[in-house]
């Protein structure tokens, strides 16, 4: 089941520099891991932003929330979730 | 080069029924064609909406505009284009 | 899997009166049916609005889209879908 | 009398860690208590957010305000209240 | 129980002139009636607008919805309802 | 002359606790005083908010600004002023 | 007493041409008249818009509403009223 | 003097087809003419939209308004004007 | 050439008190000076706000930017600039 | 390939003064450099704002993101990117 997730990061300018570096490294590790697990089949950066668009493939809403809320940068993100359905014109849906 | 395109369709309720059916059929044919051409690698329906999210893969802005503005339903669409870049945590970008 | 759906209806003032009455009756029949099926465990009217808040219980995004887009009044609705997860303080989640 | 309440929490990143933990624990205790009292028949987490949707059942506006404004995290919440009425298609309203 | 209701009217410019006059007269009669019943203790016009602010005094959400949705101009109104509570600094609340 | 004033208070979480208590007490005293003077014939709390709706009765715009800008919490308020006129359906305006 | 009024005109494209011309001529006559009466000391066109900014000088809210709601184009205007006060740095307010 | 102008066109779907074609041809002629006159040094189409961004070079606000309000499609445009100043980092401003 | 400028001031609550007083005094001096120079023919306070509406009369966009960006409180202002043209119904424009 | 980029800068008022001066000087150097490279053929200041409009000419989305995200002030900017296409009425596109 696919969900479109927009994630915009806003780090406070007075955040401790080591903490900032740790958070960013942990976020990257987690993003790579989620891709390897097949949970995050697509991940793009939005041009000009510290923001991403990801497509999540998960079996349920609860699991999606668990993945998102455990992201290392979640506390500093604005997140917007949009459920996706198969498009009637999707090649895979054609007879 | 990838672009994220949100397309929301709003057909006037007093549109002629034959014209409506023709437009929708033509839109579907074009969407299938763009997928076969590799121009539209992803196309999803937004749950609950007469609206889509598509990822376009095109060589230039001009070509993207040509594809979008020649969609049969373009006149009745609200379109929002977001340029995408490779994400630094994209698996394909890892060493 | 639960989804929160806000549905706001806007019927054109020049819609044929018989068609209007038919649509409203069909919408009511469908709403009753969806409740009997267990698909729509909660349905409320928003005070002062021709608008509803419904909680849908469905196995997938695709099925939710199928239910919503086949509502008799769907063409005249603004729909907003919000996926829900179990709350950590939900009584049912306590040890 | 039912009210739909959206509650979005935003904790300052420089809030003392013990105070944060105390507030969150107190909020959870209160949420469980309100459910046991029947004041909060439904409580969901919004997927991807530190935010909730709750349905409150209270005898008056004044009591709803008293419940909301005494939540431990109220100071850090954006709250939006929507009064609900029985839906004309509600199963319970059918003859 | 008090509710603050903002009502903005927008009549289609091609509405039949007799129907328009009838609706406006009926709306006025109903507004006077609601005041006499004590349901609408305050009613103001917003300067420069075809719009009102009314304070409704009703025993329940359901009754408020019944009053609003039966207003002759309801079909042409944008309505916004805000529940009110007694203010802690209200003279009537002082010891 | 009546004005509808929405006042939303937002106190910084790191404001000194004594200063906070003093401000809130001073605000309450002033609100009571303005009611006794007849300047503030109605004052309500918005359910779920640290925010108010007040109806001010003043002889001029300048005096309204003087009253509002000298409120103890003014510095921490978002204020929205809407001028009101007598409603044509107001009981007091009927022949 | 001064009020800042933004007026944006939107005429339906299918409005009868004679009626359109009459309305525009009547609006101009009324604008000239209000200036001669001293009610409208300033009137500007917003560059690029069919919209105006006017400063009205009136003795009360009720009179402002009467002036605005009797403008020939009022039915087709979006109106926004902002009450003004003397600025503490106004030359006329200096000792 | 430079102004940034965003122009978004919205033609009613029931506009007569000949009138539509005439308007679009006249708009194009005028756009070419303004470029030749040096009034419109830059004109771009926004990708995916029936909308433009133009940079106008005019001696005054009044002349800018005259140019914009006499565009053949002006009646069907949403226009947004932003005044521009020389950037302190502009190459032409460097010593 | 006239420009309508809305200026809203937001001073951080933890700004040093002496600095605050100096800035406000300097802003007032500058506002008086600009009025004496004829650059700021009108300046009003918006009722209920720490915000102003000013009409600037300047020979060019560059000079307007120079005036605005050198205001003592500019760093703490949200500024919105709207270019004005002579109104076709302006008394001064009548034959 | 052209992109329209709006960049609005917001520096925290408690940023260290030396750091602020360094950032602003570095930003200026980089803006001059990008112009010399032909990457930034147009750069304007928005009147009244600490904000810019730039036209970027780059071969790809990825390069645009690299340029923008390495701007010295990027961390403090709100950035909005709009892809541009050749206008059908552009002089250069005429036969």
TrEMBL record, chains A, B, C, D, E, F, G, H, I, J:
Record's keyword annotation contains Magnesium: no
EC numbers for this chain: 5.3.3.4
SUPFAM superfamilies hit by this protein: Dimeric alpha+beta barrel
Keywords: Aromatic hydrocarbons catabolism, Isomerase
Protein name (database record): Muconolactone Delta-isomerase
Domain of life of the source: Bacteria
Involved pathway(s): Aromatic compound metabolism; beta-ketoadipate pathway; 5-oxo-4,5-dihydro-2-furylacetate from catechol: step 3/3
Subunit structure as annotated in this protein's UniProt entry: Homodecamer.
Homology family: Belongs to the muconolactone Delta-isomerase family.
InterPro entries reported in the protein's UniProt record: Dimeric_a/b-barrel (IPR011008), MLI_dom (IPR026029), Muconolactone_d_Isoase (IPR003464)
Boundaries of every Muconolactone isomerase domain copy: 1-90
Coiled-coil annotated spans: none
